[in-house]
Design goal:
Helix content is about 5%, strand content about 35%. The chain is mainly beta and about 140 residues long. The strands form three sheets. A five-stranded mixed sheet has the order 9-10-4-3-11. The longest helix is centred in the N-terminal third of the chain and has 7 residues.
Length: about 140
């Protein structure tokens, strides 16, 4: 990895990694699988070639789950905290990195939303809500 590498980690810090831009894609995915895997309205996923990804620590603590019956969907997690970690995409030579795992700005912004028609029925776009810097009083 070069000096431009961006570090990332799981929630507990047991699994660490580095990525070197440029990224191939940055997108929000609203499919039901990503919603369940993230526990949120959508996943925020970065994609980059495998050659631009490096495990730093904890690779042995990564647990892989390939969704039965799915051609592509995988979920890799840390065995210590249960948090998501990057994973090799099964049908390509790319790695999917949950954007929230990065310790720095990736220098790219999401370009589109996938599976918009599958979005959660309760989803409200942020610009339609009141916004607070901390917990509201």
């Amino acid at each position: 990895m070069n000096d431009a590498a961006i570090n990332g980690s799981c929630l507990c810090g047991s699994v660490t990694f580095a990525v070197t831009p440029p990224f191939s894609a940055f997108r929000y995915c609203h499919c039901s699988r990503c919603r369940k895997a993230s526990g949120s309205a959508h996943a925020a996923n970065l994609v980059l070639p495998r050659t631009q990804f490096e495990w730093r620590t904890g690779e042995a603590s990564v647990k892989r789950f390939d969704l039965p019956g799915s051609e592509r969907f995988s979920l890799w997690t840390c065995t210590h905290c249960g948090g998501r970690v990057p994973h090799e995409m099964r049908t390509t030579e790319n790695v999917l990195v949950p954007a929230g795992l990065l310790d720095e700005d990736p220098g790219i912004r999401p370009r589109h939303c996938n599976f918009w028609d599958s979005k959660a029925p309760w989803y409200v776009e942020p610009q339609q809500m009141e916004i607070f810097s901390e917990y509201p009083t």
